[in-house]
Structures are given as C-alpha cells and as structure tokens.
Specification:
Blueprint: H1 9-12, H2 15-23, E1 27-28, E2 35-36, H3 47-57, E3 64-66, E4 76-78, E5 84-87, H4 93-105, E6 113-114, H5 117-120, H6 126-131, E7 135-138, H7 148-152, E8 159-162, E9 172-175, H8 176-181, E10 185-189, E11 192-193, E12 198-199, H9 210-220, E13 234-240, E14 246-249, E15 261-267, E16 270-274, E17 284-288, E18 293-296, E19 305-310, H10 314-317, H11 320-323, H12 329-335, E20 339-345
Antiparallel strand pairs: 1-2, 3-4, 4-5, 5-18, 6-10, 7-8, 7-9, 10-13, 11-12, 13-20, 14-19, 15-18, 15-20, 16-17, 16-19
Bound molecules: N-oxalylglycine and manganese (II) ion.
C-alpha cells in the first residue's frame, strides 16, 4: 500500500499524482528555519463547514447529499462517489483521546506487528520506553556462539530496552523516542503482511479489542446492507509525522467489497484524496480532522485514495480541543505533530 520511492514517469503524469504533488509539503529554502510553503486549499472539500451550514439552514451544497439513516449524526455522501460516506466529528473528544492512547500504548504491543518488526523483531512497551528515555540495544554476540535458530526465532533476545546510561556497552543502539517517531503502522486482529500484501492467518494474533469492535460496528452501520452486522477482523493503524504521506492505493485484499472499511482520523488535520477506478481521474480533495469517520464500501472500494498532506502547525492542525483533555504530557507532545488513522476491515 505504501508506494515505493521509485515512481515511474508514466504514473508521474496521472491526475492522481498531480493532485498529490499539489498538496504534498514543500519547504521554502530561502528561509533559515524549515518553513512549509503555503498550499492552495480553496478546492478542498470541507465537511466541517458543510455540517455547520446543514445544521444552520438544512442545505449541503451541490454534489453532496445527506444519507437517510438512523445514525445519531448527519452522514454525508458525494453524488459522484457512491459507497463513500463522511461523518464529521463522529468521535467525541473523550473517544479521540482514548483511541490516541490505545494507538500508542497497546496497539503496537506484540503479537501485533509494526513496521519495526522487520528490523528489530517484536518490541514491547515502545511508548513507555520513549517516555522513560530508554534505548533499544543489541547485545554483542560472538559469531561462533550465534545459532541460526535464535536469530530467526520470534523471541530473538538480540534487542532490548535499557537505561540510557547502559548504552555504551551495546554494539548497536537506537533510542526509543526515535523509534516512536519512526513508527508508521501497527496491525490488529488478523495480521496484514506488507511484504506479500495479503493477510497471513498463520501469524499469531489477538482479536481486535472488544471496545474497538463495538465502535466499528456502530460506525459501519450507515454503509451496511440492511439487517447485516459488520464483522471487524483486522485493523491497520497508520501513524503520520511531519512530512509523512500515504501514497495513492486501493485496499483490495479483503474478500467482500460490499462491506465498508471504517476509517477513523485522530490528531492533526490532513488532506485526503479520493480518486476513481483509475489514477487518470482527477481525485476529490477533502479535509480529515480528528474525530472524523469515513466509510468506503461498494463502488468506493474500487477508488484510489491517499493522504498527501498532514498539517502539523498549531494554526492548521485543529487539535486545540485535545489540549485540555490530555493530563499526561507525552500523549499531547506526540499528537501535536502527528496524525493517527485507524482503519478497520472485515476480511472475509
Ligand atoms: C489505509 C488508508 C487513510 C487515512 O490505511 O489504507 O487509506 O486516512 N488510510 O489515513
Ligand atoms: Mn486505504
């Protein structure tokens, strides 16, 4: 799903790629400090202001409609993208804080996998270790005593967190705070194998936590075929820091595309691009804010989509409502310059 850095010339010219380039972050090199260049967001659909207008006078504007359903908040649809649903502010501030905490504290815990598994094997307590200023070190192991079995085994004791003062004894080390900044994804429930781009049911896994299942079932409601209940089986949690983006892609590894992907945004505001079946079509750009929920079902499952930009500056991030909610500073520190996306899927 993550695009490789090598994007061939052909795809450089598609309408989707052009939109990604329009919205991605560029820096003004003439300034001493790294300052992002201003971006023209005049064509970005803003469902928060559509909601305000709707609440005020019942109007939603051209190309947008309101779904008739018994959800407790307005659910918006785009006339040109059947199967796509946008629920602005679907999560309360308390819910947003709760899922930000969970995303940092418990979702990256083994047996859930993260992008760090490939390099370091399973890592426990990443967030707490970063808070405590710990360092991940690999112990020096003389070659003649290394047995292949241990190297490939999942419980390879090669890497562990130690106090900063013990760093000097290690042959390799990386601080937990650096690893936290480089955390890009974790997978819940059935584990998605990024190298093969499919679900690997043989990998050990825990069920998706019950509270997240209940939330996803409730959120999926507006996009579900009448009388059916969404069955959350897997979730991918994406972590975005300054300058990170998610290239245009399709999520096509799930069996039944009539079932929605439930996608929740937390933290800094982002721009989401929703294309069509081909990258040649011009995508629609829209803002995603903390607490927004997006559903993609049916035809919308076949639409290219991605996140070319997140806004980490205080003025544009739009996360001031989270400031007073977090009593523990480390969460606030993280989320001030980050975005988290939890997307939940029914695989079978
Ligand atoms: C994904 C995805 C969208 C987002 O992880 O497949 O499309 O809002 N995420 O981050
Ligand atoms: Mn996706």
């Amino acid at each position: 799903m993550y695009e490789s850095d090598v994007i061939n010339e052909e795809s450089e010219r598609t309408a989707f790629r052009k939109a990604e380039k329009k919205y991605k972050i560029y820096y003004d090199n003439t300034k001493k400090k790294k300052v992002p260049k201003p971006v023209d967001t005049s064509e970005v659909v803003d469902f928060s202001s559509i909601l305000d207008k709707y609440n005020c006078n019942g109007e939603v504007g051209e190309g947008v409609s309101v779904l008739k359903c018994d959800f407790d908040r307005p659910v918006f649809c785009l006339d040109s993208r059947p199967g796509f649903y946008f629920i602005p502010g679907a999560l309360s501030v308390e819910e947003q804080c709760h899922w930000i905490r969970e995303s940092l504290l418990s979702f990256p815990q083994p047996p859930n996998r993260t992008n760090h598994n490939a390099m370091y094997g399973p890592i426990e307590d990443l967030f707490i270790s970063a808070e405590e200023g710990k360092v991940l070190v690999s112990e020096e192991r003389p070659l003649d005593r290394v047995d292949l079995e241990t190297i490939v085994s999942k419980s390879d004791p090669g890497w562990k967190f130690v106090e900063e003062s013990n760093r000097k004894n290690a042959c390799n080390s990386v601080s937990a705070s650096v690893l936290l900044r480089k955390l890009r994804w974790s997978t819940l429930g059935l584990q998605f194998d990024w190298s093969k781009r499919n679900y690997n049911v043989s990998l050990p896994h825990k069920k998706i936590p019950d509270a997240l299942c209940q939330l996803a079932k409730r959120m999926a409601g507006p996009a579900m075929p009448c009388g059916e209940e969404f069955q959350p089986e897997a979730a991918i949690v994406n972590y975005f820091g300054i300058g990170d983006m998610l290239g245009g892609h399709l999520d096509d590894m799930e069996k039944d595309w009539s079932k929605p992907i439930v996608s929740m945004s937390l933290g800094c505001k982002a721009i989401f691009l929703l294309g069509e079946k081909s990258r040649e079509h011009l995508p629609i750009a829209m803002f995603l804010r903390s607490g927004d929920v997006v559903l993609m079902a049916g035809e919308a499952r076949e639409c290219f989509h991605g996140v070319p930009r997140i806004f980490t500056d205080a003025e544009n991030a739009e996360i001031s409502h989270l400031e007073s909610q977090f009593s523990d500073l480390p969460y606030l520190d993280y989320i001030r310059t980050s975005r988290i996306n939890i997307n939940i899927r029914q695989v079978y």
